[in-house]
Amino acid sequence: MSLGCSTSSMDPQQSIVSGTRIDGAPNVPINLDKIKSPTPKSEPLSRYGNHSPYTVLGKTYQVWETGQHYQEDGVASWYGTKFHGQHTSSWEPYDMLSMTAAHKHLPLPSFVRVTNLENKKTIIVRVNDRGPFHNERIIDLSYAAALKLDMTKKGTARVSIETLATPYDKLTPTRNRDAIYVQAGAFANVLTAQQLKFNLTDYTDTPIRIVNKQHKKTGMQPTTLFKIQIGPFTSVKKAQLLTQRIRDNQLAQAFILTKPAEKFSSEANQF
């Protein structure tokens, strides 16, 4: 798990300082030509790191049901030696010399394109960790990924990210009969959900519904979440425009849902 830093595979013949108290760059020269970008593909959903909701530093986060069509501009940071060799949220060891990243909401593993808006350099990374847990940051990159974007010295950079592939058992190809919705939030308190639904009416004429769904955890009482869904939309483009508008106005961390129309229509407890 990445908390965000303040500022390929490993070569077994090289020594890298890991587990240090202060995060930073490795103490060996890095040959970027030997570090290749991953090929985007839909992999099985990770057994670890996809529990939703989850809480870090007293704040609760949701893991999105799908990252399809996700795009966002914001601040990227990077993490290095302090976390090198430790378990990521997906329980894979963190390799600071691989092209990976941490994201608060995308299902693990996902593949995203990251573009440094300051120098237009672009990379592809595999998201296998959670973070960065700073409000102003949207993605935490491995040291190698940050180095390829030429942002290690500055520590952060303005970037644009977009998904290229997400876990296949959380995402099915969009078919002609698929319905397209925007999910704007999921809350344990129905009054909070109703307030957001009311606020969203100023930003769209598309129908807004609240879906009541129970979530069960082993050994615990079922909990109910009230999900705010907007739609259906006639095109992904229209859903994207509303998603971005909701995000730009800081109403919610909205994302797009696509699944067969009959599944949306059969969901119970809508109001």
Give a structural overview.
With 271 residues, the protein is of the alpha+beta class. The two termini are 37 Å apart. Helices cover 13% and strands 31% of the residues. It has helices at 143-148, 190-200, 236-248, 261-266, and strands spanning 54-56, 59-61, 71-79, 100-102, 110-116, 122-129, 137-142, 157-165, 178-187, 208-215, 223-233, 255-260. The longest helix is centred in the last third of the chain and has 13 residues, at 236-248. It folds into two domains: 32-165, Beta Barrel (Barwin-like endoglucanases); 178-266, Sporulation related repeat (Alpha-Beta Plaits, 2-Layer Sandwich). The strands form three sheets. A six-stranded mixed beta barrel has the order 3-7-4-6-5-8. A four-stranded antiparallel sheet has the order 10-11-9-12. Strand 10 and strand 11 (223-233) form a beta hairpin. The model is unreliable at 5-19 and 169-175 (pLDDT under 50). It is globular. The chain contains four helices and twelve strands; from the N terminus they run E-E-E-E-E-E-E-H-E-E-H-E-E-H-E-H.
